[in-house]
Amino acid sequence: MVTRIFRTAIKVGEDFITIEESVALPLDATPDDIQRAVDLGERIYSMQRAAVEKQVEIIRSQRPATNGNGAGYAEPPATDAQRRFIGSLQDKAGWTSEQLAAYAVELGFDMVSLTKGQASTLIEKLKDGRPVAPATRSAPHLPGFDDAPPPEQAPGDESDIPF
User: Whole-structure pTM over 0.70, yes or no?
Assistant: First the structure.
């Protein structure tokens, strides 16, 4: 028995789709047997490849184009090196994580889902302009909890409280 196996892989994003064709013939196969097997193998391969190309086309059409280049792929996330560099610029500026996140929001970015391109923009902004750190949010003002008592009511005078 003689066997020939042909494999090919197509990369789609981070995944691979594999096409495999296998032809097995006995040792005493005639030239006509071999030709028929080769022809059949080529037909199978062609049909498999056409089916995979259609599947790839469908998968690619379903992926959102978020980076504006028309490629149909989402931009990759910020790299670890970019995030480390942003952290070092944050330390140099003396910013808290909240201040950095607030500045990123001002630029329209989210630090959790920061893309590679956004990280580059953020790095350049931090390097070039050394912007003033945005004010971080303080706790909300709750009347009655953190205010001094009104002047007409002395502490301990609860005569006008309805309960």
Answer: no
Rounded to a whole number of angstroms, the CA Rg of the chain reads 33
| Domain membership of residue 115 as a residue range | 80-129
Count the domains in the chain.
2
* Spatial separation of the C-alpha atoms in residues 53 and 75, rounded to whole Å: 23
Query: Which DSSP symbol is given to 138?
Result: P
H helix or E strand, kind and range, residue 44: helix 31-62
Q: In this structure, which long-range contacts are made by residues 41-47, counting pairs with CB atoms below 8 Å and at least 24 apart in sequence?
A: 41/4, 41/6, 45/6, 45/19, 45/21
Q: pLDDT digits over 82-99, tens only?
A: 999 998 898 888 888 888
Residue 89 CA to residue 70 CA, distance in Å, equals 32
Q: Is residue 157 part of a domain?
A: no
